[in-house]
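Board work, copied verbatim: Cation-transporting P-type ATPase N-terminal domain-containing protein
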Amino acid sequence: MRMVPCTFEAAEYIYIIDNHNVSELQPVLRKSNATIPTENGEMRKVPELRWFVYRKLEYVWIDDLNSDESVDEISDNDNCWKTSFEIANRIPCRSLLAVSESNFGLTLSEISRRLEFYGRNEIVVQLRPILYLLVMEVITPFYVFQIFSVTVWYNDEYAYYASLIVILSLGSIVMDVYQIRTQEIRLRSMVHSTESVEVIREGTEMTIGSDQLVPGDILLIPPHGCLMQCDSVLMNGTVIVNESVLTGESVPITKVALTDETNDSVFNIEKNSKNVLFCGTQVLQTRFYRGKKVKAIVLRTAYSTLKGQLVRSIMYPKPVDFRFTKDLFKFILFLACISGCGFIYTIIVMIMRGNTLRRIIVRSLDIITITVPPALPAAMSVGIINAQLRLKKKEIFCISPSTINTCGAINVVCFDKTGTLTEDGLDFHVVRPVMSAVNQEIQKVKLEKSNRTEFMGEMTELTSRNGLPFDGDLVKAIATCHSLTRINGVLHGDPLDLILFQKTGWTMEEGIEGDIEEETQRFDNVQPSIIKPTDDKSAEYSVIRQFTFSSSLQRMSVIVFDPREDRPDNMMLYSKGSPEMILSLCDPNTVPEDYLLQVNSYAQHGFRLIAVARRPLDLNFNKASKVKRDAVECDLEMLGLIVMENRVKPVTLGVINQLNRANIRTVMVTGDNLLTGLSVARECGIIRPSKRAFLVEHVPGELDEYGRTKIFVKQSVSSSDEVIEDDASVSISMCSSTWKGSSEGDGFSPTNTEVETPNPVTADSLGHLIASSYHLAISGPTFAVIVHEYPELVDQLCSVCDVFARMAPDQKQSLVEQLQQIDYTVAMCGDGANDCAALKAAHAGISLSDAEASIAAPFTSKVPDIRCVPTVISEGRAALVTSFGIFKYMAGYSLTQFVTVMHLYWISNILTDGQFMYIDMFLITMFALLFGNTPAFYRLAHTPPPTRLLSIASMTSVVGQLIIIGVVQFIVFFSTSQQPWFTPYQPPVDDEVEDKRSMQGTALFCVSMFQYIILALVYSKGPPFRGNLWSNKPMCALTIFATLLCLFIVIWPTELVLKTLGNVELPSLTFRIFIVIVGAVNAAVSYGFETLFVDFFLLGYWERYKKKRSIEAIIDYVPTTNSDHIRRPSINGVTSSRTESTLLSAEGQQLHMTTSKNGKGGENPHSSALFERLISRIGGEPTWLTNPIPPHSLSEPEEPEKLERTY
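↓ predict structure ↓
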């Protein structure tokens, strides 16, 4: 079908290309007199509706946008095609409030129109027919070639081996179809969810199926929870939800109603996320006035919901592009070219020898099936199947066997935190109260340095306030400063708050006393919570105001009133948060001198620290309910530190260290807050104990002169107290500076920086430069800012940042894809539904869950810890080396048989069916089946196995062995014809029955038997990726048996052997022994060539030497001054020069780095991309060359300062 570009008005098909260059053709559907939504959510009639369906979403053409422009004229910024929910993207908040207040809902006619346009609210995964799956498997190139091969063999009466290939292929196809079908069924069962819901339509409350919901419906949320079936905006009351399916955190979150404060603004689902109930989240409880029902308005349904987007990411993942597979097809093409030459040679020789047309056709086609082995797919799967069985024994299940090979190339592993690296909770360790030297008069008297406050000893009990300073205010702060709430009589909230509150032994009541039913009717209480201690029965404390925790502010606060106080305006503010934030808000005179020393000491041992402070307030109830947060969270008085133990799983540290020793980069990607992630990362070894950690942050609303959000970098207090390493060629300047959006470049630039002239960079000093002395950590919101406003820095950030916190599911997926773009082979390990998209996008997803994540991930571990990761990688490496070896073995077998047949075609002869059967069905089949039985090596090597099948070493190995085998066969072929007892072969005349037996054929068959065994042993590699040959006992037994059997066939052939194989007896025993000696020499030469030349010289020396020379050439190019020939990028039309950035520590230390990026016009031929690409491919000694550094991880290597930035 031929198509030409045309206007969208006349278009019948839409050709779609996504961001991964995957193309698809979709028909344009049309309907007359239809209705579509407007920007404000209302429905309007159009004379004609045009749309197409792409990956479960309907894209609608909007007539009043560029309707008569051709395809070539449409720019990328013209949103001509929009999804149905992108059209209604400017709904005023006042419209939503008006709909809620009317309490009427949609009419039946409106519901009918919306249902017709939006469709049913259901996420359905269609099962593809079995016949379709079978056809799609059969039409793959390998199976098509197998059909061709077995057709030729059946025509040549070589039926036994053809039947064996047919059976193996059918088994492989059935297994593939079964796995695909099982995966589809599991996904459908996971996402399908339908239940009855209450709505208001035409002013009447009614119950309908959730699949009948349409945008604009007024949904009634039941008091005691439900599973949300759509995305909706909350219009009244409060709702406590569990969003673990989206964020991975099981902490209940309180959603609040959309208020009239924003009625002039347009509703934005991201900015108003605190008002949105997302599909798939679990509503735990609703709260509103007695007798009133909580209402929400439906916003999005089906695949347009947040859950629908997650399901779409599973169904349509980014295609995995593994270089080994590409090289495999290229090598097959190389073999096909050889077979083409053999095809032409056969025709010419056969015509010269006067053979019949049928014989010429059969022999010519037969040479193609010999050169390109049809059994290759089955043989390649042997190593994978064995690895899969070994993984299953260790309770690791794989639903995508082809992914196992990919695991062999993994050089970065991303870990979720909660439930993956750590247990699902925290343990209380101790508290360190602050003791005032002047007994609470510290705020009234200016103290001398000798009278500063100090820490008391560690305390493990919080049930009693006796002996604590400030009348035990530290315990009071712990008991009141939290966001706990009661659901069905049970306390819920942040696990940390819950543990601390339970540790105090205090009790909490919300509002007036009452039964559980009244919980759902508590709303807008003046007195939301009453806290009662156990050591004073008459005391009670009322929490009248709560400032919720904010990750950007790193703290939360409450205002507490004690009814026993004589004055109603005597209140107390309690705050808790990160040690550095509370420190910045406290009066310095209330902070112990050794505060930072104590904080660093605990942090370095992996504890999570929370600082607590207070401030007396002279406010009444009215003022306390309206006072701004900034007005009271200042001039605080330090009360002490809470030390929490991060319960990292017992195996986590050992596994991370094992991966680090193997030079596999480890990254934490979590939905938890940044400081928690940083602490756990340091405890489990992702952040090294001897290195500093820097936080990359942004301040919303603070912009540079180009309108970009400013990015700041500060050192974490929990970092090591060691000084940042100085380098011989890098000077660290000690001055004060701030990171901000550069006015001259595309990255960051410091102010008031001083850079000394660096020493020349050499290859010997480069290793120290690569080893960075710090780690970076970033949160999801800041990552989003950098992605959108600083895209030129995303590659560098992903290459050096080790902790990504507060990451939403789509951000986790984006990070994985970004790592893949810079040539990392990525594994993702997680246990939650919020990890599904990242697990699916990674080259290898490893799930520790039996639920949603296991459907998206190729691997599922029944053991819920990360010990499965090195196991999967080691098995992947073993499978990859096995695949390399068995492919080279099958290629060597084909080329060996090709050389044999080429020799025999010269005399119009060919091997007999018995000889073919012995080689193909016994030697090759048995060795291929047992080749992958060698287990993985017991530890991970420091360097990964080669992933390039078309590398110089691999090609040299195959071609070299081919030359050796060809020479040996020619010697035997020629020597046979020179023997005095030699009888030449007489080819058949015309239609005579062909007698394929010949002396030269028998001699070549005898020597080639040994060559097949030699190839199997030569290509069966052992350590450091697989066990040695002796660990594969079945293959050892087969080798011994096959060698003895071949010796028997050559030296002492019986009549039965000669008749079965179709051999001709060679009269001379001396000549038969000569063949055995030639085979032994062949074995010695082949083994020596593979071990000494290929493994030692090419892999062990030559390639490293070439790469090191290339690096030295680039280093020699590095200029010491600015160069005019370096391209300068343009930002907002302003040409920029090279920019410098500075990493700041809390003490004002800074580390200079240089960034330089090319514009879209092209890449500088001396850019750092080439530099990094060379480094990333170097393996072995020296040690610094083994660090996996991906392409694009650095900027231009103009000055050595930049090299200190990377590792």
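The mean pLDDT is 77.
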